[in-house]
Amino acid sequence: MTNPSTPAANGTTGKRACVVGAGPVGALSALYLAKDGWDVDVYELRGDLRMPGNKSLNFTKSINLALSERGISGMRAIDETLLKEVLAETIPMYGREVHNTKLPASVVEKRKEAGYQYWTEGEKQEYDCHGRFIRSADRHRLNEQLLERIAKEPNVRLHFNQGLKKMDLDKKVAWFEYSAKDAGENPEVTRVEFDFLLGCDGAHSTVRRLLQKYVRMDYEQTYIDTLWCELEIYPNEVTGDFLIHPNYLHIWPKQTFMFIAIPSPDKTFTCTLFMPQSRFDEIGDSPDGLIAFFERHFPAVIPLIGRDRLIKDYFKNPKLPLISVKCSPYHYKDSCVILGDAAHAMVPFYGQGMNAGFEDVRILFEHIHAHSDLGTALSRYSEARKPNAHSINDLAMTNYVEMRANVTSSIYKARKQVEEFLYDYLPMLGITTQYALVSFSNTPYSQVITHMKWQKRILNTVATALVFGAIGLVAWITWGKRFAGKGDALFAIAKDVWHRVWALL
């Protein structure tokens, strides 16, 4: 099949693209397709989130999105105006604010009564020595902005409450079933013909499952021993302002579990409790058990949320699992490709899920534009994307340990200070921080891992040299005092040691 990116006389190529999933990655994919002249149909299992009452669980702002350079680049490459509109509704986060988990609730209450702007403050750990920042974005609002944008394209049609039932990738036909509550016992099934199908339907992707019938897909699915529960910190009832600093990601780390809070434009904080199943079992079904748990582990959080609201939200909201998915290849011939979480769902601890998905879209279309044949473009995309998608999955896993444990480690903080000093004052050495490469650049994820391994070897070598140099200096001073005025004897001892070492080589 030839590359369909040359528009026909009517402004489109006459080629039909089918996008499964109207989340952020699916919506951005539709925009890229529309700009390339495809006739685009987007099918979404759920209702239109732009309509009141359609905020299902997956459309809420749970685990707010952290927008960084890769996601920004994905939007910048296709629509600068859209990017500006999105950025205007985000909040800069310059780093982490790590809180003392033993701080008693009474201290927070006293700050509240004294009229402090922020009821509690922790240790601020900046993301970048040059002042760069990531952005907190409301998941629902960002998705809404993307849908509003693609709805303006005359060659894009949106279909909601349509679930993919089956597809024939050789004949390029898919069947969608009406999934709204009023569907009845025999819901309507729509047959859709396409030239190109993009699966952007999330971690539990139907497209990926059906794609496995056509390709010998390597597939790995991992559930980590951590569940998450969403909570919320509301604005100050008197001033209407944030209760804690809005320009930081707040962490209450407990080594094996943690509580985090991320700012939202409406002055609330979307909070997430990440814990192993055993910790949730420890709380049980009793409000007293919940309050006792928070008093023991996160006492300062209780006055921030409010005792009654904490009890209400904790027992109302589900405790959901975290999944990591690796697979390859991502395509079949010239007819289908999967993107975003459908291709590489990851745990949320690096804030790269959406960013990696937007990067998928940008890189996919770079390959499409670089090759005259769509099948070749998809093959090259799968080959190039696999090592990077797998790498960010691994990085996200390891960053959980950093967030819940290492942020309080003296060794971690010392290493970070050394890296940032060298990065800031001696950039010619090539030393940087892993966070800067992941969040503030478009360096391929696999190259980030390679670079950090090299950097670790260099820094370890330098550290070893400094240690032995210091030991040698102390020894030299000590020996100098001991053998003061006995230079010939000292030289003879050194010569003897040298000969003994040489004899062993």
Walkthrough of the structure:
With 505 residues, the chain is an alpha/beta fold. The chain folds into three domains: 1-90 and 137-217 and 329-399, FAD/NAD(P)-binding domain (3-Layer(bba) Sandwich); 95-132 and 221-326, FAD/NAD(P)-binding domain, CATH 3.50.50.60; 424-505. It has 17 helices and 19 strands. The strands form four sheets. A seven-stranded mixed β-sheet has the order 6-5-14-15-16-13-17.
Please summarize what this structure is:
It is found in: Mitochondrion outer membrane. This protein is an alpha/beta fold.
> Assembly state here?
single chain
Query: Which regions contain 5 or more consecutive residues with pLDDT less than 50?
Result: 1-10, 57-61, 501-505
Distance between the first and last residues' Cα: 66 Å
Give the tally of β-strands: 19
Largest sheet: 7 strands, mixed
* Shape summary: globular
* Strand percentage: 15-25%
User: Would you identify the CATH architecture of the largest domain?
Assistant: 3-Layer(bba) Sandwich
Range of helix content: 40-55%
What would you report as the Rg, rounded to the nearest angstrom? 28 Å
What's the helix count?
Answer: 17
Any idea how many domains?
Answer: 3
User: Could you give me the name of the CATH homologous superfamily of the largest domain?
Assistant: FAD/NAD(P)-binding domain
Structural class: alpha/beta
GO molecular function: FAD binding; kynurenine 3-monooxygenase activity
Catalytic activity: L-kynurenine + NADPH + O2 + H(+) = 3-hydroxy-L-kynurenine + NADP(+) + H2O
Subcellular location: Mitochondrion outer membrane
EC number: 1.14.13.9
